[in-house]
Amino acid sequence: MSNTHCAVTNCKTTSYNKLPGVSFHSCPSSKEMRSKWLQCLKNKCSILDWSKSKICSVHFEKKYFDAQRKLKENAVPSIFPIGANVRGSKIDLPVQKTKVDRLLNRVGQAEISADIKNTLTKMRVPTNLDMFVADDLKCKPDSPMEAHLWLLIKKQDYLNKILATQLIQNKKQVEILHKNLDDIRNHKNDTEQNISTLKYIVKCLQEKHATLEEQIEILSAVESR
Ligand SMILES: [Zn+2]
Q1: Which contacts (CB < 8 Å, 24+ apart) does range 21-24 have?
Q2: pLDDT tens per residue, range 30-54
Q3: Which domain, by its residues, includes 211?
Q4: What is residue 155's three-state secondary structure?
Q5: How high is the mean pLDDT of the chain?
Q6: Ligand 1 midpoint to CA 61 (Å)
Q7: What are phi and psi of 73, to 5 degrees?
Q8: What is the pLDDT of residue 78?
């Protein structure tokens, strides 16, 4: 059997090194599911061949597997390693010195944020948090550890929200630029078509041996339309 490897960029899973329980999955065959997969994978795979590419089970949420560990029909890959983006956005990670760094790099972004959310819902915000916070957005010296921690979490959450908004705005701007480019292209096509129409009229007139004056007269009429 040849060595199968996962099509996701920066995913190191192969049939030789895969961990127990990790499986490989072929791409869906229906048009509808393929377009869903493409949405998720377009920036995550440098090559996606519907008939040959395999995606490893690491990229699917648990809910997409049945009791026999078979991938369900509606499964869509959504978990990717940090640095899986193919174009431009590949993150250059610093040298992974500690165990935590290494482990963080092994799980996907979606998995980490789900884990954070899970942990947060279990930790209750101190009801009197505002009391411990000074006007410079720092905890007062005698605040409990819990308050320090929660203030940090709130700051991080705030930054995440700003980042998410900026991401959406950037996407919108890219869309507008694409649209402008299309408009320019269409306009250019129109102009080119007009020129070729006029050239054709000139050719017809010349073939008909119309006099120069007649040609000018007809062309002016065409142009003023
Ligand atoms: Zn993989």
Answers
A1: 21/57, 21/69, 22/56, 22/57, 22/58, 23/56, 23/57, 23/69, 23/71, 24/54, 24/55, 24/56, 24/57
A2: 989 998 998 888 778 877 888 889 9
A3: 193-224
A4: helix
A5: 83
A6: 13
A7: -55, -35
A8: 92
pLDDT tens across 126-135, in order?
Answer: 888 999 999 9
Residue listed under structure tokens 């299309």 = 182
Residue 58 placed within a domain: yes
Q: Give me ligand 1 centre to Cα 11, in Å.
A: 5
- Looking up tokens 């007062």 gives 140
Tens digit of each residue's pLDDT (9 = 90 or more) over 206-216: 777 667 777 77
What's the distance, CA 138 to chain centroid? 36
CA of 81 from ligand 1 middle (Å) equals: 8
Query: Ligand 1 center to residue 52 CA distance, Å?
Result: 14
Q: Is there a domain that residue 168 lies in?
A: no
Residue 219 lies in a domain: yes
From ligand 1's centre to the CA of 55, what distance in Å? 6
Which among 73, 90, 107 is the end of a domain?
90
| Listed residues: CB within 5 A of ion ligand 1 | 6, 8, 11, 13, 56, 58
What pLDDT is stored for residue 220 in this prediction? 77
Domain end residue (candidates: 90, 105, 138) = 90
Given this model, what pLDDT does residue 95 score?
A: 62
Q: Could you tell me the distance, in angstroms and rounded to a whole number, from the CA of residue 26 to the centre of ligand 1? A: 12
Res 221: pLDDT? 76
Q: How confident is the model at residue 169 (pLDDT cuts 50, 70, 90)?
A: confident
151 within a domain of the structure (yes/no): no
Number of domains within the chain: 2
Output the CA 6–ligand 1 centroid distance in Å. 4
